[in-house]
Structures are given as C-alpha cells and as structure tokens.
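We read letters as residues; the fold follows as tokens. Both lines appear below.
***
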Amino acid sequence: RRDFVANASHELRTPLTAIRGFAETLIDGAAEDPEARSRFLDAIFRHTIRLQRLAQDLTTLSQVESPQHDWVESPTDVGAVCRDSVSSLESFARKKGITVEMLLPDEPLIVTLSARGLDHVLVNLVENAIKYSPAGSVVTVGVRSTEEQVQFEVADHGPGIPNKYHQRIFERFYRVDKGRSRDEGGTGLGLSISKNLAQRMGGTIELDSEVGAGSTFRLSLPLEALDDDAQ
C-alpha cells in the first residue's frame, strides 16, 4: 500500500508541477505573446486531461478492489457490448488512421455477467491496441465461445511487448515505455483495472506478444448457461 501511495503521488505531482510552471510563465508575461500563450494553454489543457483520467482510473480501481461495490450481473448479449465498446472508439481510431475489424458470432451470445465491467475491459484493451498501432494497420476484436467459456481477443500490429514484461504490465502504474505511455495519455492503471475486473467476473486476462509481431490480449470469462425463460 505504501508503494501504491508513493506511485499515485508521483503520477499526480508530475502534471500538477507542469501546470503550475506553465501558469507561472503566463503570469510573468508570456501571455502577451499570442504564440507562447497558445502553446502554454494547450499544454495546461493536456495535463488537465491527464489528471482527470488519472482521477477516474483511481476511482474505478477503488471500486473494483472493494468487496462492497456491486458490479451488477445480468443476462447480457456480449456481442452487442463488444459493438458498443468499439463504436465508442471510432473517432479515436479514425484520428489515428486505424481500422478496427470485429469478428462476432452470427447469433446473440447471452452470458450472465457485468455489462459495465465487460465494456470497461474491452474499451481499455481496444484503446490500447489503437494507441500503440502504426497508422494504416488493423486492430481485430473477436468473440468466440467454447463449452465453458466466452473469449474476447484484441489483436494489434504494434511493436509488441518483450516476454519479460508480460506479467508486470498488469501491475498498477507499471509501464514498459514510460515516456511514450505518458505522451499517449496513459495512466498506468488500465491493465491493472482490467485484470481485477476479469477476476471479479470469474475470469482471466492473458497476453500473447512478440517484439515486432504485435500483441493479442485474451479475456476469458465463464460461460453460464441460462434457463429457457431467460433465453
């Protein structure tokens, strides 16, 4: 817990220090220069967004790790959740020059789970895939079921992740490329939240990745059969 507080304090302090520095520079006279004013205000805005995302992720992490917080489960069409999750990132993908392809079941696949929790994990995984993929490439989001599980796969053609980091990337605040992650607006909490949510829903999340060959994240959740009335 001490390490978590220290890491959280560092993540908060960095953008706050930057915001204060830019604000002081503007107060000291830089505001009179239109070009400098625009540049500094843009930097302040970006760091403010970063703080907002960090606050949101800290709140979500607290909810995920709290046994008192109820992630309501109900019969859910997981294909529909997947479509909604990807749809929410269409603008981001278009801006990055990425095409997102979905491979979904032809028929509705109904599973009892937390639709909110599933959406949060999928948005995080797909957003990361888009974020770290080269322009012009394709991110694939697939859903399939076995006798006991429903599996979601998010595959990209990004730089890949060295094997020695495959477990550590799920730790809170851990980043393989710290500078790039911060530049892309990452908080270092997304994958930790996703892993905790997967476990809350009785599942797992795994990574297959090789340097230079992209990454595939696989979310596996128990497939609970519903009675005839629910179906």
Observations:
- The longest helix spans residues 34-65.
- The chain has two domains: 2-65, 74-222.
